Amino acid sequence: MTQVLDIVAVVGSLRRESFTRRLVQAAAAIAPESLRIEIVGIGDLPLYNQDAEASPPPPWLTFRDRIRPAAGVLFATPEYNRSMPGALKNAIDVGSRPYGKSVWARKPAAIISDSPGALGAFGANHHLRQCLVFLDMPTMQQPEAYIGGVDKLLGPAGELANAATRQFIEQFLRSFEAWVRRHAA
To answer: What are 132-147's pLDDT values in tens digits?
Structure first.
């Protein structure tokens, strides 16, 4: 029997009904049975401030404790001003500290970026990828996932209403599973 992989999804958009959140929920619903994908909230994380490390805020500890045992991380991001949202960057910073105790180190990752526009949040995807390189996260290179026109791809119940997109996400998740298994600690 194949081991079920615990995958945490970090969604850059804080809006409850964001396209990015809905896309990850739709992906989780069609993921192979061997992947359990859980969205980990980042909206309640206080801004990272090194001065607080002496007595870390409880949300930082809860977040770090959830990321640490995960087999892999699926990052999903919209694009804000040609980059990732500030809340996502803050979550990355919270998880990367204190220095030498990063919960991200050597954890396999993949990125899905999305936008109602045609470019599929290309800029955000690459800014995020640059951070993951520094964090020593082996990040899946192929297939790349830039989901443009996301506002037209999701059905009323949040499902992937476009057959080609559904097929692509299924392949992406199979590739991610293989990536995580290859880079498992």
So the answer is: 999 999 999 999 999 9
